[in-house]
Amino acid sequence: MTEARASGRVLVLDDDGAIRTVVREALRRAGHQVTGVATLRELDAALASSEPDVLLTDVVLPDGDGLERAAALALSHPRLPVIVFSARNTLATAVRATEAGAFDYLPKPFDLDALIRSVAAALARGGVAAAGDVAPAEEGLPLIGRSPAMQDVYRTIARVVATDLTVLVSGESGTGKELVARAIHDLGPRAPAPFVALNMAAIPRELIEAELFGHERGAFTGAGQRVAGRFEQAAGGTLFLDEIGDMPMDAQTRLLRVLQSGEFTSVGGARSLRADVRVLAASNRDLAGQVATGQFREDLFYRLNVVPIAMPPLRERAGDVALLARHFLDRAVEQGLPRKTLDAAAVAALDAHDWPGNVRELENLMRRLAVLSRDEQLGAQDVIAMLGRREPSADSLPTETADTDIAAAVRRRIDRLAREQPRTLDDGTLYERIVGEVERPLIEAMLARFNGNQLRAARALGINRNTLRKRLDTLGIDASFRPSGGLQP
């Protein structure tokens, strides 16, 4: 094992002089010798005179592509670790960097501490990983976002696409867990074979084993012929098991055997079948918590959780909301809907929303705006109205009587909307509208209970304090709220 060195010779390739200066000074303070070049021609000259211990390179350069050169260096200088950084911080760039044999990929703007750690790790490794046999990636991949949280997801995907490792994707509903699974399949060597998805929560528990492994004729009442299960259907490809936390215990046991042995038998069958399938799984539940309570097998959890990928909720993806919103509006045009654009105020209104339904909620909102908004340019009022975040009015849910029956109040509210605004029941806004009308009195009630203490109110609501403050601003609730006659905790 190569001993880690305290310092090394680092060559930085970037046509931006300011970036070269910042990187040079940061690495020099960390004890490294740093040289900077601006073009591939200058890189060749520097390598001809002496080989550095680590190369840092941008992708878009005045005289060529840094990733193409990194791939060539993996062959001509196999012991030279190459760290790639780029402002084109998409999944495609991360995958290309991995295919080129890069030691690491850092999206711009990068954290200097992260860069220093990456250089130290490259020096300790003393070499580069072999380039994978993955087909070239293309732009336009389904995962979209440039936030740091999504960059972590991209880097992990890029590192596992060329393997057959089992991946467990976690995250709230609507965050895009299946998109991660599809990207891993589509970018990997199994791409020509089928991608088969099965949602455990959508299958009756007594039929899950038959769905997974198939069944023979006569295996149970109504089984009139042999039916191939999802493992057979995905032969040579990928099987994606969504909502794996809903799988019953007996099916968990059979799945574990397949993962361990690579073989299975159909329901009612006696012949072992080979499972040449890569298994990816996802859950919006806390599987580790389910293991602790005996609801999920510990050994299966570890078999599935070889490579964990945590999908961030949309509220934690700073800067991605506008990017996604414009993408969904463009896609709506491709589907024959009118073209819409967002002004700055509309983007601010989107950023202020908490997105409890995550990316799926945003996509549905953009589709509704494309259909229902009259103006081509969407403003803040269009977004706010469609989200149902109007100021409470006289016909909102009752808030003054502490012992109001909420279920009855919701029914009365829906009945009134059905009479006075029947289109509300058909335009897909009812959920957000009712929830929006409940949110203000709920937050005000919790602030009253804790005498305006936002930290305690946030804890009781199960959200962080920054999220609460954002909701106070969005709903127009005074941040210095001091109730009179509030209940004591």
Write structural notes for this entry.
The chain has a 5-stranded parallel beta sheet with strand order 2-1-3-6-7, with helices on both faces. The protein has a 5-stranded parallel beta sheet with strand order 9-10-13-8-14. It contains 20 helices and 16 strands. The relative contact order is 0.07. Mean pLDDT is 81; it is low at 1-5, 127-141, 389-404 and 481-489. β6 (82-86), α4 (91-99) and β7 (104-107) form a beta-alpha-beta unit. α14 (344-352) runs parallel beside α16 and α19 (454-461) crosses α20. The protein is of the alpha/beta class. The protein folds into 4 domains: 9-143, Response regulator (Rossmann fold), CATH 3.40.50; 163-312, Rossmann fold; 318-387, Helicase, Ruva Protein, domain 3, CATH 1.10.8; 406-475, Arc Repressor Mutant, subunit A.
Key features of this structure:
5-stranded parallel sheet, 489 residues, alpha/beta, Helicase, Ruva Protein, domain 3, single chain, 20 helices, disordered N terminus, disordered C terminus, Rossmann fold, globular
TL;DR?
It contains 20 helices and 16 strands.
Tally of distinct domains = 4
Specify the helix fraction band.
40-55%
Large-scale geometry: globular
- Please list the strands of the largest sheet in the order they lie side by side: 2-1-3-6-7
Question: What is the element layout, followed by pairings?
Answer:
Blueprint: E1 9-13, H1 17-29, E2 33-37, H2 40-49, E3 54-57, E4 60-61, E5 64-65, H3 66-76, E6 82-86, H4 91-99, E7 104-107, H5 112-125, H6 148-160, E8 167-170, H7 177-187, E9 195-199, H8 208-213, H9 230-233, E10 238-242, H10 249-261, E11 263-264, E12 273-274, E13 278-283, H11 287-292, H12 298-304, E14 307-310, H13 320-334, E15 341-342, H14 344-352, H15 358-372, E16 377-378, H16 380-387, H17 406-420, H18 430-449, H19 454-461, H20 465-475
Parallel strand pairs: 1-2, 1-3, 3-6, 6-7, 8-13, 8-14, 9-10, 10-13, 15-16
Antiparallel strand pairs: 4-5, 11-12
Helix pairs in contact: 4-6, 13-15, 14-16, 18-19, 19-20
